Amino acid sequence: MKTKATLLLSLLLLMLAGQTTTAQQQRYTVSGYVKDKQNGESLVGISIGKSGTTIGTVTNQYGFYSLTLPAGEHEIQFSYMGYAPYKATVKLTKNTTIDVSMEATSSQLNVVTVNGQKQERTVNTLNTSINKLDIQQMKKMPTFMGEVDVLRAIQTLPGVNTVGEGSSGFNVRGGNSDENLILLDEAPVYNSTHMLGFFSVFNPDAVKSLNLIKGGFPAEYGGRTSSVLDIRMKDGNNQNLTLNGGIGNIFSRLSVEAPIVKDKGSFIVAGRRSYIDLLMKPFVKGDMKDTKLNFYDLTAKANYKFDKNNSLFVSGYFGRDVFGFGKDVNMNWGNSTATVRWNHVFTNRLFLNLTTYYSKYDYSLKFTNDSKKKPGEVEQAYDWTSNIINYGLKPSFTYYINSSNSLHFGVQGIYYTFKPGTGTSTNDGDVHVKKITDQHALESAVYIDHEYKPSKKFGIQYGGRLSAYQFVGTGNAYMYADTTPGIRKRLVDIKQYGSNELIKGYYYFEPRISARYAFSDEHAVKVAYSRTTQFMHQLSNTASPTPLDIWTPSTNNIKPMVADQYTAGYFYNAPNDAYELSAEVFYKTTDNQVDYIDNANLQLNPLIEADLLPSQGRAYGLELYAKKDIGKTTGWVSYTLSRTERKTPGISMNEWFLNRYDRTHNLNLVLTHTFTKRTSLSANWVFASGTPGTFADNRLEFQGWDIPYNSTEKRNNYRLPAYHRLDLSMTLKGKQLKRWKGEWVFSLYNVYGRRNAYTIYFKQNEDDPTKREATRLSIIGSIIPGITYNFKF
């Protein structure tokens, strides 16, 4: 590890030495923030360049830029599609700060081209496998029940899929849903959906932008092996009071934005609440009259700029799902996050973002026979709770050496507390408590990467991440004897550890590198390699993870996952930026994925590690993407051809078998046509191969009964039928008044009523109980209409 680090440092110093300016050429730096003039929101990815040259930079994810130029007078131009270009003439005799407010244009049909310095196009970036969407793009998509949804938007991108309706998560390049790092203002979110997967927990009125990273991960991201979904919340309007909201047939939402001090501070508060249970209340009687079926969430953020060098941001999220069937069955789950961020500019070239956060995910499940108890019967009840809590600290720095070099480095630390479950059963007044021992862990990392662009054609970003993980007490460590692979392991010893006493430690070096070569302004190829590690795991032996699945850390028996991914791609941007094309291939291997013995027991099992197996994974494929941003007809089409497999000792005859998330073909077509300024129609069609499943391939007749069985003992030996669906959405804008703007959104989900199979199960034939028949289970099998009225004041 020391050798690798030494070589990396030597290479870095060598490249920086070649960029050192001479004493005869004095250079100064112009820096600052770029914001939206109308609402004060920071703008990410704005291109800043010296007119007439290829020297330039872009704003970072906090809206900050830094550009170093020779002493003298320069014309600096700021440009981005959808905003009027801004020019500033500056005479550099010292380091200078220029904060810029850019004005949004009413039309995006004209593309701004500034002497080779255009907006940050895909063909110009170093990173591979990154898709960026903003809320305006998401609003153009067909909606489910008339509601814009973040997760449904990213599922139309190449390499992303789900197992179908009702799945609480998404899968990227064959990975499990727990292999996605989902960040909301830099705080991790563990359950990203409401209503068992039908809506995301992210209120669209509070979302500014999102980045989905599938490969070529920058060194600052770690802890997951498949993807990073980085969601940034709005800062709030620091110019005027603004209300946004919507009233739909499932839920309503409202957000409020306003200045705290104009031009210096602002806030946003956004809330949603569904009301299915309220609408159904008049129709539900008897034992079910107390049924609860709703979700709600609250998102808030405030910021304040103390001076040109210091800004503070505070944000939080709280959301919960409540399912209650009468008085006898009640369950709820939800996320809570809080983030405090401090941006500090040390010099015109050195920028700090210091983040500290809190995140919690918890759930509870309660059963009782109270309402159905007959005279003389005893009271019975059961209560199960579980949660995961983490605290994090992330100081991250960006040092802008010159227009060709920048360094990104930082330190990260996360402290985890896992409460796998506490079950309390009551039987006629007798209370019995079964508690799984709490678990604790500390994850830390130090990282650095260097972005080097020696010419217009070539660029490289390389670096590394040193990750450390300690599984610590207070807690127990279980020792198991080696057994035949695929069989439950035998417990031989239990050792107790005191508070923060080290039980097991893991240490990894994660190299990262991405490179780009441009043949011209329109054509470029990119390659990338990254190693990632993951120290926590979601335990689920169902086809789709549920909100009640268990999270567990890596222990002395569960090793961290380690993934190596190679990516190569071709990228094209049309000369007028009307459309872009890309084609990427990837190959990923993963060690120490969690698998299960047959009939594994995952619920309130203190010896759950005995039922787990280490597994190897591999995934490879081709991703095609075409996107059109200009004109009356816009949209994108994505296609993925891929294969995802696993190999687990003792399972499936020790051979490679299909991962349960494997889809050979995945096609998405998203189109929006604008008829007039007030009318538009959107369509989304998706086609995907069915997911694999394990089914009997033979049968045994015994005393006149058919007994099905799997003769090959291979997992996932069949596929479900192909999945396809068409959605339509029409937006009708009302008269756009000076202060009040409204629109109606009418949607049809699953237009031709396709009964897509969520799973297939076997049951006895009603006419002949000795026979068993396959039955298709569909979560949605009909057309679902929706209507929403959106407004802005």
UniProtKB/TrEMBL annotation:
This is TonB-dependent receptor. The lineage of its organism: Bacteria, Pseudomonadati, Bacteroidota, Chitinophagia, Chitinophagales. It is a multi-pass membrane protein. Residues 129-225 form the TonB-dependent receptor plug domain. It holds the Pfam family Plug. Residues 1-23 form the signal peptide. Coiled coil: none annotated. It is found in: Cell outer membrane. It comes from Chitinophaga eiseniae. One of its GO terms (cellular component) is cell outer membrane. Belongs to the TonB-dependent receptor family. Keywords: Cell outer membrane, Membrane, Receptor, Signal, Transmembrane, Transmembrane beta strand, Transport. Gene3D superfamilies: Carboxypeptidase-like, regulatory domain (2.60.40.1120), TonB-dependent receptor, beta-barrel domain (2.40.170.20), TonB-dependent receptor, plug domain (2.170.130.10).
